[in-house]
């Protein structure tokens, strides 16, 4: 069975622990890269990542875009959204369907 994790700043991700998601607080892009790579090797099927961290480690996340697992899903941080997650979903839908239906 695959696990679910979230990677981001402590203030933004701590609440996810209450619903049973494994929480990984990171303070630097290097730490985020290492954490994502480690989680990908450790049977995590879904990795949520805050949009702010995603912007800093985009190349690491893009390495997993063509793989089935893990699914890396951006979420807003405690300061609000940058619409990165919605843009990625629109790209995925357009790739799957052939046009943007959203």
Automatic annotation (TrEMBL):
Q: Name one GO molecular function term.
A: proton-transporting ATP synthase activity, rotational mechanism
What keywords are assigned to this protein? ATP synthesis, Hydrogen ion transport, Ion transport, Transport
In the UniProt record, does the keyword Ion transport occur? yes
| Pfam families recorded | ATP-synt_F
- Gene Ontology annotations of biological process type: proton motive force-driven plasma membrane ATP synthesis
The family database entries (SUPFAM superfamilies) matched by this protein are listed as: AtpF-like
Family under the similarity heading: Belongs to the V-ATPase F subunit family.
The protein's matches in NCBIfam families, at most eight in alphabetical order, are given as:
PRK01395.1
Can you say what this protein is called?
V-type ATP synthase subunit F
Q: Which gene encodes it?
A: atpF
């Amino acid at each position: 069975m695959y696990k679910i994790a979230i990677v981001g700043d402590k203030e933004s991700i701590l609440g996810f622990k209450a619903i049973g998601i494994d929480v990984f607080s990171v303070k630097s892009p290097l730490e985020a890269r290492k954490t994502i790579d480690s989680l990908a090797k450790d049977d995590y099927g879904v990795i949520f990542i805050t949009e702010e961290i995603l912007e800093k480690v985009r190349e690491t996340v893009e390495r997993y875009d063509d793989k089935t697992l893990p699914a890396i899903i951006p979420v807003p941080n405690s300061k609000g959204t940058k619409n990165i997650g919605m843009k990625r979903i629109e790209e995925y839908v357009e790739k799957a369907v052939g046009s943007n239906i959203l």
